Protein: Aminopeptidase N
Organism: Tritonibacter multivorans
Amino acid sequence: MKDASPATAPETFYLKDYKPFGFEVESVELIFRLAPEATRVLSKIRFVPREGAADPRFFLHGEELELISAQIDGEPVAPRLIDGGLECDVPSEPFTWESEVQINPAANTALEGLYMSNGMYCTQCEAEGFRKITFYPDRPDVMSTFKVRIEGTEPVMLSNGNPGDSGAGFAEWHDPWPKPAYLFALVAGELVNHPDRFTTASGKDVELNIWVRPGDETKCAFGMEALKKSMTWDEEVYGREYDLDVFNIVAVDDFNMGAMENKGLNIFNSSCVLASPETSTDMNFERIEAIIAHEYFHNWTGNRITCRDWFQLCLKEGLTVYRDAQFTADMRSEPVKRISDVIDLRARQFPEDGGPLAHPPRPEEFQEINNFYTATVYEKGAEVIGMLKRLVGDEAYYKALDLYFDRHDGQACTIEDWLEVFEDTTGRDMAQFKRWYSDAGTPRLKVAEEYDGETFTLTFQQSTAPTPGQDIKEPRVIPIAVGLLNDAGEEVVPTTVLEMTEAEQSFTFEGLSERPVPSILREFSAPVVLERETSAAERTFLLAHDTDPFNRWEAGRALAREARLAMITEGAAPDAAYLEALTSLVRDDALDPAFRALVLSPPSQSEIAQALHEAGTTPDPAAIHDAAETFSQTLAQAMADSLPRLYAATTVDGPYVPDAEGAGKRALNSAILGLLSRIDGGEAAAKQYEAADNMTLQLSALACLLRIEKGADQSAAFFEQWKDDRLVMDKWFGLQVSMARPEAAADVARSLCDHALFDMKNPNRFRAVMGALAGHHAGFHHASGAGYALLAEKLIALDALNPQTTARMCAAFQTWKRYDDDRQGKVRVELERILATEGLSRDTNEMVSRILN
Ligand code: ARG
Ligand code: ZN
C-alpha cells in the first residue's frame, strides 16, 4: 500500500503559495468500526463555503483509502479520485459531506495514520497522517470540533476531548475545542491506567491517566508527577490552565518520534514516558520529565494557538521547546540545563546549519514536511525565542506572551503574528530580528579587544556563510551578553547585553583602571560561533574564576578542544596545564557535581572533526579517536592517586531517587569510574555492576567494562536479566555498538541486526543499533567504508516499511564533505545506491538528494 516511487520529480510546496481553504468546517463526526485489517471510517462533515474564496475548489486529501461511498446532503455523489485525494462538485450553500472508507491498520508499518502496535490501535497524524484515516482538508488552518464514536471489542477506547456515552462495544468522545486534524488521536486496546487528579488554579477538577500495557503500570508514577508539575508550572509562569475534564497519556512501543500533543490524548513513545529506577537511567528520567512537560505545554502553544501552515512549524515547536527548557531549568539546575542544551545544539543543529541540509527555522519550501522536524526548527527555534526574551527583557516578554494568547486563542498563526505581539507591546521594530527566522546558517562572531588605560573596547564582526539557496546574508540582531572581570576574578562590569545590529560594531566600557578579562557570550546568549583569539592562560583563568557558569564551562571546553587539536595536528602531548586545571576542578567539592561532570566529559569526536574542518584540516577519524583515548588515558594516570578516593566520595548512598541532586552526583561518579577503569582493570566497575540496584549504576558500570573490553560476562548477564524488557534491551543493543572498537563497529552492528530480538519495524530498536553506529564517529567513518555500506543497506530495507524514520536517519551522512576524497567517494556510492532504489519514498528521496547536492 506504500506510495509508488515518484516517477516524475516530486512536488515542492512553497510558503509563498499559501491560500486559505475555500470552506470552513463547522463540525466533524466520525465513526470508527475497528478491525485490524479492515477498519471502516464513516465521516460526516459540515462545510460552509467561504465568501470570495481565492481557491473555491473542493479538494479533500486522502491517501491509501478505499472509498466505499460518498454523499452530499444525503444524496450519493461520485467524487473524482485524483493523486493525493479527491475532488467533487459541491453546492454553493453550506452542506453535509458524508463518506465511508476502509483502511488497513495492520499493514501500516509507516506508523502514520491509524496503525497497530502490539495489538493495540493507535494514531499519529502530525503532520499529514489524518489523510490516511479519511478524506479531509488535512491542513492545520482548518479547525473544527470533533465528535468520535469508536466501535470495537477493545476494553479501552480513547479519543480527544471529554468522554461521552460508552457501553458494550462502543465509546464516544467529544472535543469542544476547535482543532486541526493533525491533533486528532484514537487509541484502542487492552490497556491499564495509572490514575490521578489535578485541580486547576480556577478550581476545575481534571482526571489524569497514563495508559499502558498490562505490566507497565509500575512505571507510570514518575511521569504522572512530571505531568502535575507541568500543569502547575504553566499556571504559575505563563498563567495557562488546562481546559478539558480529562487529560490522557498513552504509551506506545512503535512510534516514529518522541511523543505527540494530540488534544487531551497525548501519545508517547513508551521510551519517553515509562520509568522505573530498575529500568531507567537518570538521563531517561530527566528526558521523560521534559517531554511530558513539552507535550503538555503544547496545549496552549500548539493546540489552542496552532500554525497556519507547516512552514510555521517553529511557531509552536520553538516556543514549546523554549518553555520546556525553562521548566527543566526551574525543576533542576539552570546552568546545567543551559550547558547541556548548548552541547546538544552544537552536536545536532550546528552540523545541520553548516551542511547541505541547512534551512531556516521557518523554511520556505519542502517536498516532505516530516523532513523538517529538525534541530533547526526545534532547538534553533527555541534559541531564537531566548534571544527575543534577552533583547526585550523578562517583563516585556511575558506581556507579549499574554497578548499572544489573548489575541490569537483559537487561531492558526504565522511568525508574523508572533513578532507583531512583540512589536505591539514593546514598540520595537522586529524587521531585522526576523532574519533569524528567514535565514539559514550559523553566524560567526569575531571579536577584537582594545584597552587604552581607561576605556575597554570590544569590536565584533559578524558573518554567515552561504547556505543552500541563500548566498548573501544580511547582518542579524545579536544579543551579546558580556561581563568584565579583574585579575582577582571579581566582576568589574556585571553581565550586560550588547545589542549588535551591524556587520561590524564596537562597544566601549569606560573608567577601567586595569585591563579587564572579558567574559563574552555569557549563558550562550545567541546561537553563534564565537571566534576569539586568546591565550590558554586566559582560558584557564576563566575556567577557574568566571562568575558565569556557562562561560566557565565554555572556557574548559575550548581548552579541551585545543588540547585535542594540538595532539592531532602537531603530535603534542596532552596539555599539562589543562590536565592540572581539570584535576583541581574535579576535586573542588564546593562545585556542583553535575557541573563538574560536564567539565570532565570530553568534546565529542564529531565536534573535534568539525573543529579541524573549520581550521582547514581534513579530519582523520582514526587520529581523532586515538587522541581521545590518549587524552583520557593520560588524565586517568595523572589522577591515579586520587581516583579511588574520588570515586568513593562521589558514590551516592541510600535508595535511588531520580532527582537532580542525585543525578548530578551519579554523573560525576560515573565519569570518575570511567577514568578509574582505565587504570584498575575494571575492578571497581565490576563491583559496581554486581551491587547495582538501579539502571543508572548498572549501565554505567557495563559501559565502563565494555570500553576496556572486559564486559563480556556482564553483558551476557545483562541480556539474561532484561531480555523481556524492550526498553532496556534497546540500551543493550546500543551499547554493544557504541562501545565497539572502531574497526569492529560495523560488524557488531551487522550481527545485531541478525539477532533474534532485532526488529526492523520497531523504530526504537532500529535506532538503538543503527543510530549508535551513526554516532560512533570512528566506527561509522572507518576507512573501510563498512559503516557507510551497512547504514545504506539497512536504510534501503527500512524505507520500504517506514519512510519517515529512514529519512531522518539519512542525516547521518550530512557531514560527508568534511572528510577526505576516499571517504567522500565511498559515501557518494552509498547515497547514489539509496537514490537508485526502486520505489524509494518521497521522504528519503528528498533527504538524499539534498545531502548529495
Ligand atoms: N509535535 C510533536 C512534538 O514535537 C512531534 C510530532 C512529529 N511527528 C512527525 N511525524 N513529524 O511534540
Ligand atoms: Zn513539540
User: Anything to note?
Assistant: Residues 124, 126-127, 256-257, 259-261, 294-295, 317, 370, 373, 804 surround arginine (ligand 1) (CB under 6 Å). The radius of gyration is 27 Å.
